[in-house]
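Internal ticket - ligand job 499, magnesium ion:
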Amino acid sequence: MTERKQGDVARRADKAPMATAWDYAPAPESRDIVRIQERYGLFIGGKFVEPLSGERYTTIDPAREEPLSEVAQASKADVDRAVKAARGAFDGTWSKLRPSERAKYLFRIARILQERAREFAVLESMNGGKPIRESRDVDVPLAAAHFFYYAGWADKLEYAFPNRRPRPIGVAAQIIPWNFPLLMLAWKIAPALAAGNTVVLKPAETTPLSALLFCDVLRQAELPPGVVNIITGDGRTGAEMVAHPGVDKIAFTGSTEVGKAIQRTLAGTGKRLTLELGGKAANIIFDDAPLDQAVEGIINGIYFNQGHVCCAGSRLLVQESIYEATIAKLKRRMRTLRVGDPLDKNTDVGAINSKQQLDKIASLVQSGVDEGAEIYQPPCKLPERGYWFVPTVFTNVAQSYRIAQEEIFGPVLSVLTFRTPDEAIEKANNTPYGLSAGVWTEKGSRILAMAQKLRAGVVWANTYNRFDPASPFGGYKESGFGREGGRHGLEAYVALDDA
Ligand code: NAI
Ligand code: MG
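stdout (structure tokens):
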């Protein structure tokens, strides 16, 4: 059958003309709700100040390649100022506040985030390229949920650590990536504040705007000045934060390469560290899995947020007996993915976050083709401007190929097969990473057995990319150490004395 195009009309002598192909009409969310300033300073001590560095750079909309604002590149002197403000707030107010008072501020922040959810969702999609459907339904509600969750812990810390007396650590330097800008901010700030610490946080260089808007939430919540300081800049600013002697704890989410560098810098300093790094997760489909649901899980696992997800299900392991059927269904489903304008409510896959990331994805995909894997990309019309990559699946992949070994951090799936559960385990664990995994099967006993043997911090069963503030998240091996979320997430932000 030939492909039907929009506007095709079937004409039959005995019937009225009838459209035979139905396309979505564009449904763009309005940008008017966000007010982006022409330029931003650094949020230090409760107000925006001019950067001492005098340097600024342009942050853009990756879907349009258009400038959005000028933001500051914080220098060593700026970092010093922010750390001193955080120290002053720690000593002066925050560590002395009654825990229930700390909770009050966190509840306020959570509520204000909910009230301003639409504004945050639009801004997040404009600056990061992710579909509004995701920023609206996932990023922003989850960010608010994290503040609510940790607000609840603030006055119950002694119950979190029975027979121990928890005490805050001091000033936390927090460095976050560009794939979930607001959500990672919430993961970092909420537990730190609940436990009585103050923070200096740096968003990633490509996605600073939601963190800068968050400063306005802090103003509305009347958070005491200096408790949260937000500074912008690239890796040089991050390195200054790590090296600053006045910092007691570092929380980092980003590449394994930078995580290792941070660990080297901190060796012997006594500063505390948690690292949440890359991944190359196996999404494992057994022959008794409900196949249609599993295909949805595969799609969600790798094409959610353009695959810019540390826990993405980027290696699909399919049991050999259902291989053909799974791949056929998967390709059919891929043909229905809508790639394009992140602000369009119908969009499934948005823009790639940066030119740099697009180049990295393209070069890894080329390596897959060169090494001999079979590539499939559905027909797809991409916008002319902006950074885009067509959802891609590779079959005929050997475990040694770079596309099976390295984190691509894009909408690219590599398919491998297995015959027995043991073989699935062996292949799934054959990676330097260990952040997450997915298991699809009807058998509860098999889920438990697999979860025991998979070296991954999170194992999802018959679902994927499901997050909850009450559930700890973190990795093994080169995926890092420490947990975020849940009671475990508090541990990184307290010193424990004997009761
Ligand atoms: P990156 O690790 O360089 O950046 C993450 C954050 O660290 C940013 O805020 C950045 O400014 C900061 N940073 C960079 N160099 C630093 C340094 N020397 N000291 C302290 N902070 C520093 O990640 P990048 O370059 O944006 O992405 C490269 C690759 O890393 C991606 O293709 C992806 O594979 C992986 N990645 C993994 C993430 C995850 O969630 N696990 C998040 C972002 C990237
Ligand atoms: Mg980098």
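Auto-summary: The chain has a mean pLDDT of 96. Residues 375 and 435 are 26 Å apart (CA to CA).
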